[in-house]
Amino acid sequence: MLPVRSRGPSPKRPALFGSASFDPSDATHPEENHPVLCQGRVAVVTGAASGIGAAAARAFAALGMKVAIADLPSSSDKLQSLGKELVNVVGEANVLVVPTDVSVYEEVCKFRETVFEAWSEVGILLNNAGVDGGPDGKRGTSWEGLDAWHHVFNVNVFGIVNVQQAFIPAMLYQENPAMVINTGSKQGITNPPGNTAYNATKAAIKSLTEGLAHELRTKADAHGTARITAHLFVPGWTFTGLTGASAGGEKPAGAWSADETVKYMLSRVAAGDFYVVCPDNETTPEADQLRIMWAAADVAQGRPALSRWHRDYKALFEEYMREGHALQVKVAAENKNK
Ligand SMILES: NC(=O)c1ccc[n+]([C@@H]2O[C@H](COP(=O)([O-])OP(=O)(O)OC[C@H]3O[C@@H](n4cnc5c(N)ncnc54)[C@H](O)[C@@H]3O)[C@@H](O)[C@H]2O)c1
Predict the structure, then answer these.
(1) Which GO MF terms are attached to this record (predicted)?
(2) Most buried one in 211, 229, 310, 335, CB count within 10 A?
C-alpha cells in the first residue's frame, strides 16, 4: 500500500519528498534581512528558563532583537541568569526578565503590560512553556491522575490561550508584521501511546494554532491590515529538561540539541512555513511524513485507533513504511534528474 501518488513537481506544489535528512549546519538563513527576525524588533518567549525556550531567547538576542523572557517564579534564578547572559549580548535596555506563570491569566496580562510599556510592540510571540505531567511530575492515565490532567492542560493549552488573549489584541494594532509561534509536538499529531494527557494537549495546540492562522488570514483578507502570521512549531526529539537533560549526562545520539532545533525552526518560520516539523538525528522528515499520513489514514480508512501500535496492523505498517521509503527515494531521484 502506497501513501500517495507522485504527481511530479510544480511551482505551487513542490516535490512531495525531500531527498535527505536535514543537517542543521547546512541550514540556509532566510532570517537574514527578515522584517520580524531582525535587530530592534521584540521577541517574547515563555518557558525561557531552560531547554528550547532558553535557546530561542539566545538566538533572538544573537539577531540583535529585544528579548522578554518569562518562566515560573520557581525558576527565577535560572531566568535571571539567562537575563544577565542576554544583557551581555544586547544591553540592559533590551532585556526584560518577567517571572510569569502562563497558566494564570492575570500574570500573563502583567507580562504584556511590562512588554508594551517598555517597547510598545511585539515581533515574535513564542509560546513555548510546557510540561508533560502534574506539578509533582507524575503523569495521569486515561482514568487516573485527574490533577495531572488539569495541570498539563492549564499550562500547555490554557497557557497558550492566555498569552494569545492577552497579547494578540494589542499586536493587531501594530503596523509592522509579527509572528505567533505555538509549540506543539509530534505527540499531538501521531499520538504515540504513553502519555495520553500530554498528547491531548498537543493535539489541542495543533487545532487552536490552525484556527488562529485562519482567523488572522481572514482578518487580513477583510481589512488588509493584519500582518500577523501563526506557526505551529513541532520539535523533534530535543535534549532538554523535559527529556532528561536536567539529570545531567550526555545528549543521546538520536536527539538534537535545543540550539539545533531552534535553528531549524527559525529557518522554516522565516521561509513562511506554518507547519514546522523538526527532524532529529533518529527521525528523518521522510519518516515523519509517512507516520503522519498513516495516522491520518486511520481516520480516513476507518482503521482501529492508533493502528500503528495495534498487533493486527504491525506487519502492514512495516510494509507501508518500507514501500513508502522506497517510493520517496525513487521520486527524489526522478526529481534530481529533471
Ligand atoms: N524536548 C523535546 O523533545 C520536545 C519535543 C516536542 C515538544 N517539546 C515542547 O517544547 C517546549 C519546551 O520544552 P523543553 O523541551 O525545552 O523542556 P524544558 O522543561 O527544558 O522547558 C520547559 C520550560 O517551561 C517552563 N514552564 C513550565 N510550566 C510553566 C508555566 N506554568 N509558566 C511558565 N513557564 C512554565 C519550565 O519551567 C521550563 O523552563 C514544550 O512546550 C514541550 O512540550 C519538546
Answers:
(1) oxidoreductase activity, acting on NAD(P)H, oxygen as acceptor; oxidoreductase activity, acting on the CH-OH group of donors, NAD or NADP as acceptor
(2) 229
